[in-house]
Amino acid sequence: MSKIAVIGYGVVGSGTVELFEKNKASIAKKVGREVEIKYIVDLKEFPDSPYHEKFVKDFAIVRDDQEVEVVAEVMGGLNPAYQFTKQLLESGKSVVTSNKELVAYHGAELLAIAHAHNVNYLFEASVGGGIPIIRPLNKCLAGNTIEEVSGILNGTTNFILTKMIREQVDFETALKTAQKLGYAEKDPTADVEGYDACRKICILGSLAFGRHIYPEMVHCSGITKITTDDVEYAENAGYAVKLIGTVKSVGEDQLTAIVCPRLVSKSSILAAVEDVYNAITVIGDGVGDVMFYGKGAGKLPTASAVLGDIIDALRHKERNLDISWEDTGERDFVISYKQAEVSMYVRIRADKADQLKSALSEMFGKLIFIERAGRPKNELAFITPNMMEEQIDENLTILSHTGDILSKIRIL
Amino acid sequence: MSKIAVIGYGVVGSGTVELFEKNKASIAKKVGREVEIKYIVDLKEFPDSPYHEKFVKDFAIVRDDQEVEVVAEVMGGLNPAYQFTKQLLESGKSVVTSNKELVAYHGAELLAIAHAHNVNYLFEASVGGGIPIIRPLNKCLAGNTIEEVSGILNGTTNFILTKMIREQVDFETALKTAQKLGYAEKDPTADVEGYDACRKICILGSLAFGRHIYPEMVHCSGITKITTDDVEYAENAGYAVKLIGTVKSVGEDQLTAIVCPRLVSKSSILAAVEDVYNAITVIGDGVGDVMFYGKGAGKLPTASAVLGDIIDALRHKERNLDISWEDTGERDFVISYKQAEVSMYVRIRADKADQLKSALSEMFGKLIFIERAGRPKNELAFITPNMMEEQIDENLTILSHTGDILSKIRIL
């Protein structure tokens, strides 16, 4: 009989307990012995829960109980999750987590502690909800040199953008619908500003490229400034707008890492990823491009990932699974996005905008101008060729006296 | 230093050697020690290969060399691969394979032998080329009760169908293009009749549901009878035609397993899987639906999966990974497809076909009739409601005196 514990009885925690109890028999078969949840740690009281006798408020009870082999930390946030996780690993327990913030900020350290104590720190649930991505990236694709990992990593923003595209409503209206349906929080900042996606691309990038990428190293912009006009121009040019996180190797030993809205070609399978779904693509030198798709959040999907890790941790008792990345303190291996090549959608406002076409074309070499029904005479939208972003910005200074840049959206 | 061997220097074998040599340094880091290919077994001679000194013709040299830890069996076919694999496992070597036929016919037995000898038999490359699916299904989704696994499992037929849809060419023409591009073999039977997809769905089903499903237990029909007329009707009704393998739990303890062309709604992400790409969807009680997408075949993609397994086998020396399924001899747990509920596209030929509409509607309850430009007066196409397939066939006997059934395609 193996004993486990769950810290945090919120959405993911209660889902983990529910799915565990439902599939207890098959889990025992997979682990090779009976498994039982011994404790659920939460400061709140749940007197009506069928598991009420498992609840404890004092984390130390779990930490000090030698019987507990694996703990699911599903409370979220940096503190006290960071201290709890450290203490648990140091006392010889494996920890599995859905806590993306913690992995993005302290992953390298916690993985090293797990290694030193011959236990495991697993975090499949921290990216893409139930979508298997951490283990496939680390194991199945281990024979590849990874070139790029990118994807739609936040379901809330993908839902909002899908609504804006399908129903031609503006950002605020779509956000309100998302909030009404429970897809967006009351304070939606972390989602709509791209911070949540940023943490996830840090985790994926750290794992794929072996060096800790901190959120501060990633250029991050959200979707709050996307307008229905942009959506319409994009549509007419054959693109959908998606919030994409990307980490990509450049040159010998450097990376770019960025989270931003992008125009995704409708012929690409990423464009077909709608609503609250997530999708992560990995490009490797052997495998080419592979994509992992599913619900990126939610009670039971995330619980599915937590449980998969619990089972793996129980099956690897006292055997570290060797997942790790370095944190050398160096940070300049992630180059500025301005040094990366990109093709850019630009929308400008200027008097007699059409008269700027030839001057702009001369600056950029070749531009693709996009139309929309009822385009105002003082508006122009175009797509630049692929060039260094710095150069694009420099070229656009031609407009500094004659017009305003209303939108810039990178093309995937 | 660990020594490995590769048996079969065809497309996958040469790709495996190529990708291994390219990523040798990072593979050593992941395994925790240097790794070297000691032998390549092939009956042909490759005097100009940079690895010519590694070639041997006698399999027994590999089998009897105590130094060799892991062998990649990438020769394909049942014999002698079956005997070779058995002997290798019995002599304490792990075997990784891309051989879907062998796993589909002898998987349960070979996994049991591996278990008994404390080595591993891994087969990530046998389904979906480089797409990670075996390990995610077995590990990441281990907390779920799996309800269904289905997908586009054959790149050749998906390429042909994509061509037929995009360019409105018939099957024969599309097949010729596929052959010209090297996507289809000279004898395309295994692909176009669905046998290849059938082996893969057997492997996925055996793994997901824990009982060996043999190809003979799976109803299998290919794409040779799909016409451009069907493609056009499907298009007009909002569907694309795809060859889909499905295994699904029904009731308490039974399964349906079938490979056949299906109409896939264009709003589904599976419809966006085009050309030689594969995609596998898994439905679990926790995770909901997840999809795995990528190139389902080819030299380097398949080599990527083989190498991932080699690395995992090297890291789990003398530790069986506990992948297995039962073969109790029972076969009736897979019920006949006729007992399963399905909605069906039907195209018929009959004099004054339109006059049959009301009689047909009465039989089926409600039908959706589909139009196409220039539909002949003696042709009618419709989609039935969801009902037992047996019942659909019975209802269609109404036509036995008045018309012919030209096509029947199940809806996904």
Produce a short descriptive summary.
Two copies of one chain form a homodimer. By secondary structure, chain A is of the alpha/beta class. Helix content of chain A is 35%, strand content 25%.
What does this structure look like?
The structure is a homodimer of 412-residue chains. With 412 residues, chain A is of the alpha/beta class. Chain A has three domains: 2-130 and 300-315, 3-Layer(aba) Sandwich (Rossmann fold), CATH 3.40.50; 134-294, Dihydrodipicolinate Reductase, domain 2, CATH 3.30.360.10; 339-411, ACT domain (Alpha-Beta Plaits, 2-Layer Sandwich), CATH 3.30.70. Helices cover 35% and strands 25% of the residues of chain A. Chain A contains 14 helices and 18 strands. The first copy, chain A, has helices at 11-22, 24-31, 59-64, 81-90, 100-116, 134-140, 155-167, 171-180, 189-192, 195-209, 228-236, 299-315, 357-364, 389-396, and strands at residues 2-7, 35-41, 55-56, 68-73, 94-97, 121-122, 146-152, 219-220, 239-250, 254-265, 277-284, 288-295, 341-342, 344-350, 368-370, 379-383, 387-388, 403-411. At the A-B interface, helix 1, helix 2, helix 6, strand 12 and helix 12 of A face helix 1, helix 2, helix 6, strand 12 and helix 12 of B. Strand 12 of chain A pairs antiparallel with strand 12 of chain B.
